[in-house]
Design goal:
Helices cover about 35% and strands about 15% of the residues. It is α+β, with helices and mostly antiparallel strands. About 20% of the residues are buried.
């Protein structure tokens, strides 16, 4: 019921594919690409096309129920953590992505030197390096 309410509150029709994709994102708490999401949705529904998953992800992202991140050199990934200004650590070797909270208190990333008249409300910061497993 929770997923149905989220969809309705954002003005989206409640469909089985939307509920399944939202559940996968919420339960996994990971940064999944479309193939990974599709595989997990197919475990819940008899059949769903990759295009249907793309369409659902587009609707969920536009409604603020999912976030799309696109690290350079890799596929777009999706997560259910929205509504905060968190950032990401990406391992250059294995591609693992980890959430990183923004600076506590003031968020300097939201205060660009030259905002060109924009009112900034979100920043995408990606930190690159090697995860603990890949360092050895």
């Amino acid at each position: 019921m929770h997923g149905e309410r989220l969809l309705r509150d954002r003005g989206l029709r409640v469909t089985r594919p939307r509920l399944a994709v939202l559940a996968v994102l919420t339960e996994c708490r990971a940064h999944l690409d479309v193939e990974e999401i599709t595989a997990q949705v197919r475990e819940r529904l008899e059949s769903v096309s990759v295009q249907a998953v793309y369409d659902v992800l587009g609707a969920l992202t536009a409604a603020g129920l999912a976030r799309r991140i696109a690290p350079a050199g890799g596929p777009a990934r999706y997560e259910a953590r929205v509504g905060d200004n968190h950032h990401h650590l990406v391992c250059r070797k294995c591609g693992q992505i980890t959430d990183v909270d923004c600076a506590t208190g003031a968020a300097p990333c939201l205060d660009p030197i030259e905002a060109a008249g924009f009112l900034v409300d979100e920043a995408e910061v990606t930190y690159w390096g090697l995860c603990a497993n890949c360092q050895g």
